[in-house]
Specification:
- Chain B: It is found in: Cell membrane; Membrane.
- Chain B: The chain crosses the membrane at residues 6-22, 31-52, 72-95, 107-126, 132-150, 162-183, 203-228, 240-264, 270-292, 299-319, 325-349, 361-382, 402-426, 447-472.
- Chain B: It is a multi-pass membrane protein.
- Chain B: One of its GO terms (molecular function) is NADH dehydrogenase (ubiquinone) activity.
- The complex is a heterotrimer of chains A (141), B (496) and C (112).
- Chain A is mainly α.
- Chain A has one domain (7-138).
- Chain A contains five helices and two strands; from the N terminus they run H-H-H-H-E-E-H.
- The longest helix of chain A has 25 residues, at 114-138.
- Chain B is mainly α and 496 residues long.
- Chain B has a domain at 267-463.
- In chain B, 76% of the residues lie in helices and 2% in strands.
- Chain B is globular.
- By secondary structure, chain C is mainly α.
- Chain C has a single domain (2-106), classed as Helix Hairpins.
- Chain C has three helices and no strands.
- In chain C, helix 1 packs antiparallel against helix 2 (25-46) and helix 2 (25-46) packs antiparallel against helix 3 (67-98).
- Chain C starts with a helix and ends in a 14-residue tail after the last helix.
- The chains are: A mainly alpha (141), B mainly alpha (496), C mainly alpha (112).
- The B-C interface holds B 130, 134, 137, 140-141, 144-145, 148, 151, 153-154, 156-157, 159-161, 163-164, 167-168, 170-171, 174-175, 177-179, 181-182, 187, 230 and C 20, 25, 28, 32, 35-36, 39, 42-43, 45-48, 68-69, 72, 75-76, 79, 82-83, 86-87, 90-91, 93-94, 97-98, 103, 106, 108-109, 111-112.
């Protein structure tokens, strides 16, 4: 079988994936006050991984990212639900969020919120599910 | 605020997610699934005690108050249903341990089962109509996978139809929600009830109500049940038993909730329409049950008859009718799971579901036979068993409203149900014993325990009705007086 | 604007219904997808189309858009995405196992 000529997509992907990853993380953190958040950040992150799938082989990517995405999704949902359960322990309604301002060494005065933990959960769940869907369709020939 | 209200939803989802992580460890999965259903029952029992002493319990998620935030509301009606749900699902789980097979077990059977329960419990508890949609979808997505789990040819063929029907009905649900939001500007049940009472339930509002009725009818199998016999007879016994016991009941719950809390101003239009649909459903279901000679088909058509009968009580819209509907709903959840498990055991033993090829089972399996007999009597409402009281009250309710035709059809179809189920008993258990112990396709080892529990439950529910009478009365009182629900959710002076 | 959107919703519904009534599974899935977009558009139209800023903390606006239909929409899109993906995977499985994607040949009630 002839090797496909895919120099362009390979070189573009190597750069683009890094940019998309950075952008995804930016989207994720901006979600606290502006448009963005765990769902969109997770989707952007997943799109970068799917680009990797397209360019290189699924096998290659799987070898380099040895994560079971179904487990990743489950862990994500678990994190999101458990932050809600955390509120029950403080006798507040389920899913109550709280935040505070802390003086961190480098960042100076920073707002830390429990909503971010919830969003991390959502993000992981979205990444896990979307990659699982793509893999279950694309992985078979 | 009461965090107990959320527990029936988060216990199964946390347990399910842990199971997905430990996919290989089947013993842990079995233990966790049993543990979580028992934990839900305990939490719900506590909830029922609190409701009976302190009234309807609510929880505003994240502290965002109704009608702005997401609220969870547990009144006696939903608490009773959740308790029955967890008992029935425990029995189906016990049955699944010995019958579902290793391949399905390792392919996420237990997590999916728990997600299904999450969806069902969530639908019972939610306080706004959009989250009803969300929990419906959680339940349906789990059921899509469960129905196709194992990928046999029949299952795949039926699951495609099932999914398509449900996707379309979900879209109709969204359309109805959009119209409702445009007209009232809110989606919280209590707030909706107030707003609809304010503007009056005129023609347009009644049209939206009927659109909701169509959506819920598709889910409940009320008249629009054409998808039900095929899809409920395709999956393995434990799965079809939980479907028969729970899925249609969630649709019935939604009809009862929406048409007693929000759209109750025009019973002569909406409730009469429910009554007509219920009558047609009962007739068609009973004809199907009588006509078929296939165990699984007879049982699925009996599910349809049950749906029609419960909603006949709702259609009467009287205290008696509602009491009857609630009694019969509880009875129906238990008895449908029981009868499906029994039918599945017969199919499992003989390897065929064609009634004419089975006979004389009672010599080899007397226990199974007598339990089937009890279940058959209970299904058709013979006095000391659990179906009787519901039948009495529903008939009384329909006669009181003047819907004599509806009550009459209900009683006639009861006889047809009795005939259809006795047909299974007489053909399957009496007669010449063809099978010998060696020729059987399976054993009843471990399968009789959950069946026994459910049989005892249906006897106990019939004999000990006095015990639950007080709780059912509280539930029905809450259903007939929407102001209780509104007050519990929005506070005593709803200014908005 | 609302009238225009309603007409568009109607067109989308018509296309979706037509596709669902065809025989090929893939077209049926596309039909449900288009129907889903129609429903989403309907929700946002029914919420009232008006000008206004997003109801976010960092932005100073005098008027705000109604955020509830948008929240509903986002949820509906996510659910629609999930069910469509599941439907697609399942139809693919069905196609591989049953060897056909013609709904005409998926009829019948008996076991094979």
């Amino acid at each position: 079988m002839k090797e496909p000529n895919d120099v362009i997509i390979r070189s573009v992907t190597k750069v683009a994936v890094v940019i998309i990853f950075t952008f995804a993380i930016n989207l994720f953190f901006s979600g606290h006050h502006y448009p963005g958040g765990g769902f969109i950040g997770g989707l952007a992150f997943a799109s970068a991984i799917i680009l990797l799938f397209l360019t290189f082989d699924i096998e290659t990517v799987r070898k380099n990212i040895p994560v079971d995405f179904k487990v990743l999704a489950a862990v994500g949902v678990l994190i999101a639900v458990l932050t809600g359960v955390g509120a029950i322990l403080f006798d507040a309604p389920f899913l109550t969020q709280t935040f505070g301002y802390f003086n961190l060494p480098i960042f100076r005065k920073t707002e830390l919120a429990t909503a971010v933990i919830f969003d991390i959960g959502v993000g992981l769940a979205v990444i896990g599910t979307s990659i699982t869907i793509i893999m279950s369709i694309g992985d078979d020939r | 605020m009461n965090n107990l209200v959320i527990l029936p939803i988060i216990i199964p989802i946390i347990a399910g997610m842990i199971m997905v992580i430990f996919r290989e460890n089947l013993i842990l999965q079995r233990f966790l699934s049993v543990f979580s259903t028992i934990a839900i029952s305990v939490a719900t029992l506590l909830l029922i005690i609190q409701i009976s002493s302190k009234g309807i319990q609510t929880l505003y998620l994240g502290g965002w108050e109704a009608p702005f935030g997401v609220s969870m509301v547990a009144d006696m009606f939903s608490a009773i249903l959740i308790l029955v749900t967890s008992i029935v699902s425990l029995c189906c789980l016990l049955f699944a341990f010995n019958s579902i097979g290793r391949e399905r077990e390792s392919y996420y059977f237990y997590p999916l089962f728990l997600f299904l329960i999450t969806g069902v419990n969530g639908s019972f508890l939610t306080g706004d109509i959009f989250n009803l949609f969300v929990f419906f979808e959680v339940m349906l997505v789990a059921s899509y996978v469960l129905i196709s789990l194992g990928s046999t040819r029949t299952q795949l063929r039926e699951s495609i139809k099932y999914i398509l029907i449900n996707i379309i009905s979900s879209f109709l649900f969204l359309v109805a929600i959009a119209f409702l939001y445009a007209m009232t500007g809110t989606l919280n049940f209590a707030h909706l009830s107030l707003r609809v009472a304010e503007v009056g339930q005129e023609g347009l509002m009644t049209t939206v109500a009927l659109l909701f009725l169509i959506v819920f009818s598709l889910k409940a199998g009320l008249f629009l049940f054409f998808w039900l016999p095929g899809s409920y007879s395709a999956p393995p016994t434990a799965i079809s038993a939980i479907f028969a016991a729970l899925l249609t009941k969630v649709g019935i719950y939604a009809i009862m909730r929406v048409f007693t809390l929000v759209f109750y101003h025009r019973p002569e239009v909406t409730h009469l329409f429910i009554g007509i649909l219920a009558a047609v459903t009962m007739l068609l279901g009973a004809i199907g049950a009588v006509a078929f000679w296939d165990i699984k088909r007879i049982l699925t058509y009996n599910v349809i008859v049950g749906v029609g009968f419960i909603l006949a009580g709702v259609a009467s819209f009287t205290t008696e009718g509602m009491t009857g509907s609630l009694y019969y709903l509880i009875h129906d959840m238990i008895i449908k799971a029981l009868i499906f498990l029994l039918g599945g055991t017969i199919v499992h033993l003989t390897g065929t579901s064609k009634l004419k090829e089975i006979s004389g089972l009672i010599r080899l399996h007397p226990g199974l036979g007598w339990m089937f007999f009890i279940a058959a009597l209970s299904l058709s409402g013979i006095p000391p068993l659990s179906g009787f009281l519901g039948k009495i009250f529903i008939s009384e309710g329909t006669f009181k409203t003047g819907y004599f035709w509806l009550g009459g059809i209900g009683l006639i179809t009861s006889l047809m149900v009795l005939y259809s189920i006795m047909k299974i008993f007489i053909n399957g258990f009496w007669g010449h014993t063809d099978l010998t112990e060696e020729k059987e396709k399976g054993t009843t080892k471990g399968l009789l325990l959950p069946i026994g529990i459910l049989t005892i439950l249906t006897i106990a529910l019939g004999l000990g009705t006095e015990g639950i009478h007080g709780y059912v009365d509280i539930a029905v009182e809450g259903l007939m007086n929407p102001s209780q629900y509104i007050e519990a959710v929005l506070g005593s002076n709803p200014a908005q | 604007m609302e009238t225009l959107m309603s007409i568009l919703v109607g067109i989308l519904f018509a296309i979706g219904t037509y596709l669902i009534l065809t025989k090929t599974l893939l077209r049926i899935i596309l039909g449900t997808s288009i129907l889903g977009h129609g429903v989403n558009l309907l929700i946002i139209t029914m919420g009232g189309l008006k000008k206004g800023g997003p109801p976010l903390l960092g932005i100073k606006n005098l008027t705000y858009a109604d955020s509830l239909p948008q929240a509903l929409l986002l949820t509906a899109i996510v659910i629609n995405f999930a069910t469509t993906a599941l439907f697609l995977v399942l139809s693919y499985r069905a196609y591989k196992v049953l060897g056909t994607d013609d709904t005409e040949q998926l009829r019948g009630t008996e076991n094979e």
